[in-house]
Amino acid sequence: MPTHVVEKNVADERGTLLDFLDAQRGGIRRSVLGLTDEQADAAPSASELSLRALLKHAVEGERGWVERARGLAPEDFEESMAQWQASWRPTEEETVAELLARWDAVAADTERFVLSVNLEDTFALPDAPWFPQGAGVSVRWLLLHLIEEIARHAGHADIVRESLDGKTAFELLAEQQAG
Asked: What is the mean pLDDT of residues 133-142?
């Protein structure tokens, strides 16, 4: 992680978790810094991953998990999988700028939700073969899972961006701070 999280409120677990989540979002956000949509669509590695696809997936993944915690996610496995697959395919209208703006709104919604509930509140996991049947998890688990997932994809984004133009996460951080 090229940045160190400095807690806004050292005594507050919820704030600390939100700060770590935001730091991981920053890794993906910086990966598209200064790129055109066409550059963000390039897949320069052995993987099919592009930065715009990673960005959309991170935005939709966060939105989807918060919806699930609210009890609003699809219960049907097939519908849930279709949404997951679509999260990897940005449409022409989903430009980098539009996706970044959407993520701002999703991040604000995540924070409002997390601040409105107890970290111990639980919700059901999706009905999927990789989760125990009927399992529930806490809002704390949700935040830790979002940190884990977004961090994983921020690492992917680092590799894709460096493969595109050689810029590392540290260089992008310096550009962001300078600009």
From this structure: 88
Q: For residue 5, is it within any domain?
A: no
57 is a domain residue = yes
As for how many domains the chain has, the answer is 1
Q: Quote the pLDDT of residue 92.
A: 94
Q: Residue 61 sits in which domain range?
A: 13-178
Asked if residue 2 has pLDDT above 60, the reply is: no
Element containing residue 123 per DSSP (H, E): strand 122-124
Specify whether the CB–CB gap between 147 and 24 falls below 8 A: yes
CB 64 within 8 A of CB 100: no
Residue 65 C-beta-side C-alpha neighbours within 13 Å: 26
pTM for this model (two decimals): 0.91
User: In the predicted model, what is the mean pLDDT of residues 47-55?
Assistant: 94
Q: What CATH code is carried by the domain that includes residue 140?
A: 1.20.120.450
Which long-range contacts link 99-102 to residues 24+ away (Cβ below 8 Å)? 99/52, 99/55, 99/56, 99/59, 100/29, 100/32, 100/55, 102/59
Report the chain's mean pLDDT, rounded to a whole number.
90
Distance between the two ends of the chain, CA-based, in angstroms?
A: 20
Q: What was the pLDDT predicted at 1?
A: 44
Q: What are the φ and ψ backbone dihedral angles of 136, each rounded to 5 degrees?
A: -120, 155
Note the pLDDT of residue 6.
64
